TrEMBL record:
Sequence ranges assigned to domain Luciferase-like in this UniProt record: 20-304
SUPFAM superfamilies: Bacterial luciferase-like (SSF51679)
Gene Ontology terms: cellular component: cytosol
Matches recorded under InterPro entries: Bact_Lucif_Oxidored, CmoO-like, Luciferase-like_dom, Luciferase-like_sf
GO molecular function, one term: oxidoreductase activity, acting on paired donors, with incorporation or reduction of molecular oxygen
Protein name: Luciferase-like monooxygenase
Superkingdom of this protein's organism: Bacteria
PANTHER family in the record: LUCIFERASE-LIKE MONOOXYGENASE
A Pfam family reported for this protein in Swiss-Prot or TrEMBL: Bac_luciferase
């Protein structure tokens, strides 16, 4: 392997066909326990709203649940969509989590709503311009976590004085400039928005300013990985993921479906092209295939950490995929 990188996972608590939100969350917990034993660095949970088959609308609650069911793996948000929340509330929530699970909590922050505009209105009431306050809201959060706020009129308890790493999440170059300017670690959502990935991390590194939190740039890339004993099996397992993205592209979302022998009956050339564009940062195959693909990817991008999301229908195959990936990167 070109470079030794940390290995982590992102989980959206996707509801599978025949399951519900409770089984989706139980699957997330099982993944967290499994990858903790394998030696993964962290598991992040994402904030999504008004999505019938995604059970991660309240990542703060899920983080507490997963952290309570594990012992040492870092658990965090990938991310909290900050414009949906008051910084003080986020500081208190994550301050509480860090108090309960010291040294294990990450706070990844995103600028997007994590939903559609109508739902964003329901979340934000009359404050639809909050996305423009993203940089100042992050600074407000940093102040609440700082000992320097001891004399402030508004303080976060628990929260003040706690070391809770803040990450900037992004899917475009806008977030790269902000992460660089603030001297914070940068996590890019290449698993669904790969188009600007390479440009964004180049800008982040070019403009990075050292800070009290980080001396040099730190890049995490989130990608899709489907690993199995054979390439053929991995590509069949991947049809569940492709059908999920097909549902996103055509706005016909369904629960995560069992794999099928071929995607040909399910998509037109135009839809296939759109799905393949969204999933360009996807790695599918056996141990040897993944080793070659990921060695090239890590070598070309110089990332510091690989975060994987593996939308596989069968839980046993999903856990095995995480194990194979760990072996590949060890």
């Amino acid at each position: 392997m070109t470079k030794q990188v940390k290995l982590s996972a992102l989980d959206l608590s996707i509801v599978i066909q025949g399951g519900d939100a409770a089984t989706a969350i139980a699957r997330t917990v099982e993944v967290a326990q499994h990858i903790e034993q394998l030696g993964y660095t962290r598991i992040w949970l994402a904030e999504h709203h008004n999505m019938e088959y995604v059970a991660s609308s309240a990542p703060t609650v899920l983080i507490g649940h997963v952290a309570g069911k594990t012992s040492h793996i870092r658990v965090g948000s990938g991310g909290v969509m900050l414009p949906n929340h008051a910084p003080l509330a986020v500081a208190e929530q994550f301050g509480t989590l860090e108090t309960l699970y010291p040294g294990r909590i990450d706070l990844g922050l995103g600028r997007a709503p994590g939903t559609d505009q109508l739902t964003a209105m329901a979340l934000r009431r009359n404050n639809l311009n909050t996305a423009y306050n993203f940089p100042s809201d992050i600074r407000e959060l940093q102040l609440y976590f700082s000992d320097d706020n001891a004399g402030g009129r508004v303080r976060a308890f628990p929260g003040e004085g706690l070391d809770i790493p803040i990450w900037i999440l992004g899917s475009s170059t806008d977030s790269a400039y902000l992460a660089a300017e603030m001297g914070l670690p940068y996590a890019f959502a290449a698993h669904f928005a790969p188009a600007q990935f390479r440009a964004a991390i180049a800008l982040y590194r070019q403009h990075f300013k050292p800070s009290a939190w980080l001396e040099k740039p730190y890049v995490l890339a989130c990608v899709n990985v489907i690993a199995a004993d054979t390439d053929e099996e991995a590509h069949i397992l991947a049809t569940s993921m492709y059908r999920m993205f097909l549902g996103i592209v055509t706005n016909t979302r369904q629960p995560l479906a069992p794999p099928v022998p071929s995607m040909e009956p399910y998509w037109s050339p135009e839809v296939e092209a759109a799905v393949k564009q969204m999933t360009a940062c996807t790695f599918i195959g056996n141990h040897e295939t993944l080793a070659a693909q990921l060695s090239r990817f890590i070598g070309e991008t110089g990332i510091d950490e690989l975060m994987t999301t593996s939308n596989i229908y069968d839980q046993g195959a999903r856990l095995k995929s995480y194990r194979i990936l760990k072996e590949v990167l060890s």
